[in-house]
Design a protein that fits this description.
alpha+beta, four-stranded mixed sheet, 17 helices, 11 strands, 47% helix, binds protoporphyrin IX containing FE, CYP450_sterol_14alpha_dmase, iron, endoplasmic reticulum, Cyt_P450_E_grp-IV, 25-hydroxycholesterol 7-alpha-hydroxylase
């Protein structure tokens, strides 16, 4: 493997997507990881390209529909969490109305809160709803299996045979089973993206298990990175009060919301245009992604050729050479980002209050300066949706909840950040090594309760 370390040379690699191919690599790694046959080669003519063309349905016009669904599902998940779920209490299944529990301050791990909200909301938004298979209890069990599988993911991607990884094979089988075509066809209102993929898979001689495995791979792609990213975005806002205040006031200003926030039964709409106008929120998301992303961009050389690096230099590559970009080293480069270890929520805002994109190295402006979503041919097709989801989660949490870190240092009100779990380096967003406790309560319900208490005195 050859790592290209100078970010000024990244464009030379991404420009040569034909010779330096990403899918030659991903088609070697993804199929044994998720359990479907390789999509390239003679067995399934055109499948790989046609899968690629479905990625358009995560962008453009389809994105507005996806985002609208995601916001509704996030809000539903938050309401359900406050009104129906108590630690240790029995979770009601779909179809039965849940008992309204008196909202109160709760303490929980921020990672598990983000996971709970994002997993269910993403699954429902992409795949649709079903009273039985997507009931809260069923989702909870699915989420448990997903995180158990995900814990083994680095070894699986690293090529360790699945039969050597304990219960992973059985877990994967159960997860794939959730997406059996018989189940999938019962789900209401799936996204255009999943509908198109289902139709496409039906055109090829794949077994039901293989079709389920393709769907399961998309579930992993859609939440495997988004959940840890959500944790870091929210964690940083809570750990830096100045960032929290600036982002919250921007959200309220753009959405025209007065006072401390909204009541749980208030509805809300947030368009993608409104999210785009939240420059400080965008910057805070970028800054968290800068600090926690560690994806490798891998390319396999398809033929012997001379790769031009700049006007003076080129390098000779051989067929099957592997070239890697590792943007984390760029994200942590002090020449590009002064004091790179420090979280600065407004790093990506320019002096005149617009998005900042003029980052340089050695005095030369960089074409690529932030690459959590990959590059060129391997750029994440879900990146617009992912950014929208992260911003929506922040909007929902900040507008509907009072939320604070549970254990801050008494005198300084500061918090020691959790370490990054580097066992996943190279694979995407690094989760924290341990969870962080937060306290939270609905904003308006609490006010009402306080009002009642005052009236009773
Ligand atoms: C913060 C969240 C996310 C991050 C950081 C992220 C990052 C990435 C990266 C780095 C890749 C390239 C993988 C590689 O080079 O090996 C990728 C691929 C992919 N992502 Fe994402 N992603 C995120 C969210 C999503 C979401 C929400 C979806 C879909 C709903 C999605 C769908 C995909 C798909 C389908 C691919 C494979 C593309 C291909 O085969 O060409 N991602 N993602």
């Amino acid at each position: 493997m050859t790592f290209v370390m100078d970010p000024l040379l990244y464009p030379a690699v991404t420009k040569h997507g034909r010779q330096l191919d990403f899918h030659a690599f991903s088609d070697r790694v993804a199929p044994p990881t998720f359990g479907y046959p390789p999509t390239r080669g003679g067995a399934y003519p055109g499948l790989s390209d046609r899968i690629h063309s479905t990625f358009q349905l995560l962008q453009g016009e389809s994105l507005a529909h996806l985002s609208q669904g995601m916001l509704g599902n996030l809000l539903a998940a938050l309401r359900h969490h406050f009104l129906c779920e108590r630690e240790g209490a029995e979770k009601p299944e779909g179809g039965r109305a849940c008992q309204e529990a008196e909202p109160e301050w709760r303490e929980a791990g921020l990672y598990s809160l983000c996971e709970r909200l994002m997993f269910g909301a993403s699954l429902r938004t992409l795949y649709g709803t079903h009273t039985h298979t997507h009931s809260p209890g069923a989702l909870e069990r699915l989420r448990g299996k997903f995180s158990a599988f995900d814990a083994w993911f680095p070894l699986l991607v690293g090529g360790v045979p699945i039969r050597l990884l304990g219960r992973t094979n059985a877990l994967r089988g159960e997860l794939i089973g959730h997406f059996h075509p018989r189940s999938v066809q019962q789900w209401d209102d799936p996204s255009d993206f999943i509908r198109a993929r289902t139709q496409l898979l039906n055109e090829y001689p794949l077994t039901d298990v293989e079709k389920g495995a393709h769907h399961f791979a998309i579930l992993w792609a859609s939440v495997g990175n988004t959940i840890p990213a959500a944790f870091w975005v929210v964690y940083h806002l809570l750990a830096y009060p100045e960032a929290f205040a600036a982002v919250k006031s921007e959200i309220q200003e753009v959405l025209g919301i007065q006072g401390e926030g909204l009541a749980l039964d208030d509805d809300i709409t947030i368009t993608n245009e409104e999210l785009d106008r939240m420059i400080y929120l965008e910057s805070a998301v970028c800054e968290s992604l800068r600090l926690c992303s560690a994806a490798m961009n891998v390319r396999v050389c398809q033929e012997d050729f001379q790769l031009p690096l700049n006007s003076q230099h080129s390098v000779r590559l051989r067929k099957d050479d592997i070239i890697v970009l590792y943007p984390q080293s760029m994200h942590m480069d002090p020449d590009i980002y002064p004091q790179p270890q420090v979280y600065r929520f407004d790093r990506f805002v320019s002096g005149d209050g617009r998005r900042r994109s003029d980052f340089s190295k050695k005095g030369q402006r960089l074409r690529y300066f932030l690459m959590p979503f990959g590059s060129g041919g391997s750029k994440c097709p879900g990146r617009f949706f992912a950014r929208a989801e992260l911003k929506q989660l922040v909007c929902v949490l900040l507008l509907y909840c009072r939320l604070e870190l549970a254990h801050t240092h008494a005198h300084t009100h500061t918090h020691t950040p959790p370490a990054l779990d580097t066992s996943r380096a190279g694979l995407g967003i690094l989760p924290p090594k341990g969870d962080v406790s937060v306290r939270y309560t609905p904003i308006r319900e609490k006010e009402k309760k306080e009002e009642r208490e005052r009236e009773n005195v």
